[in-house]
Amino acid sequence: MKSNDQWSSRFGFILASAGSAIGLGALWKFPYMAGTNGGGAFFLVFLLFTFAVGAPMLLAEFVVGRHSQQNAVSSYESISGNPKWKWLGYLGVTASFIILSFYSVIGGWVITYLLRSFSGSLTGLSNSRYAELFGEIIGSPSTSLLTQAAFLAITIAIVQFGVQKGIEKASRYMMPALFVLFIVLVARSLSLDGAMEGVAFFLQPDLTKLTAEGVLDALGQSFFALSVGISLMVTYSSYLDKSADLTGSVISVVSLNVFISFLAGLAIFPAVFAFGFEPSGGAGLIFTVLPAVFNQMAFGGLFFTIFMALLLFATLTSAFSLMEIIVSTVTRGKGNRKKVAWIAGFFVFLLGIPSALSFGTLADVSIFGRTIFDAMDFLASNVLMPVGALFISIFVSRKMKRDILSSEVMMSSKIGRVIFPIWYILIRYIVPAAIVIVLITSLLAY
Known about the structure:
- InterPro entries: Na/ntran_symport (IPR000175), SNS_sf (IPR037272), YocR/YhdH-like (IPR047218).
- It is built from 17 helices and no strands.
- It is an all-alpha fold.
- Helix 4 packs antiparallel against helix 13 (300-331), helix 4 crosses helix 14 (337-356) and helix 6 (141-159) packs across helix 13.
- The protein starts with 9 loop residues before the first helix and ends with a helix.
């Protein structure tokens, strides 16, 4: 394996993995999911799924990737010796294509708002005007497609240089910047009069507000937030040194993800409640409610620009991993990475066009009562990711020998010796059962 196809250090791997995990999952999706599902109740169930299901799944993907040292498709086939298992890898690649197609649309919105915020054109508008403006932006075919293409171009420009010189190098700058900007934003939000009402909404669970759909959303969010279920982390860990501590890496990535989700709640809900807005703003929460909130703060334009820059960093680090699984599967370490990255990006753009137009030209088109954008999101987050996670848990616990699993989990890790028996029970029994129960419940609910 070429040096540029490996992480230069475990720290670089953790930053890139955390960046993949954090992304829009923590900054865009988590706040509006929590806002529409009871705040603290959703956060509590999300934490439960993250530690009981998401974290074991993350370690399982790390084990598969590091043990095989191959891309997502080849990993399952080489370990099992059965070519049928390669379809589990293809499921991940397909899901990544779908996610990146609508993810890049949101990335385009972020770019639009960052540019408008930087220019000052978002300052001084009425509250109703912010909602109207968002509708105009997402309803404009030219704006949506142009910014979607710009976001994908930035993603490809980084991924084409490989793991070490591209993804890792970018993550080393973006992730520390993300944390610094977030701390500044949280401090400002908590300093507002009436902020504690938002803190109570976020941290005091009211389980009566949580529905079966909300529980499914929490499970989907735990997968989406940790980038598990579609073999992204199989790909990332395949570039990891054979002696690296996988257990410690999982603890670091999960901790960073939960911390960022926690900060996201503290940055958004106190400000929303302080100015009398509703937290259940849906997917447009950060584009319709937050601009209005920041508009009423001292130096609000500056802080909203900071938030948009933070959101763009996080969005890109997730997009890197989604693009990488596609590129690595096609090149298999031998093809022309740059050429493949640009061609793959072009096809992702084409797939994303219906999502980009689903709030404008194709607004009247629905799939099972959902816009094309929402249908793609639901298919990926609530179907493909849980199904992928189910089969990955079955593969790891049923197709890999226990002594191989224990060796991978305990490698260079003292805590791995303590965690392995617990993890093995979770991944073999609890995780599959939890996924099946929630999937059945969701089908009955819908």
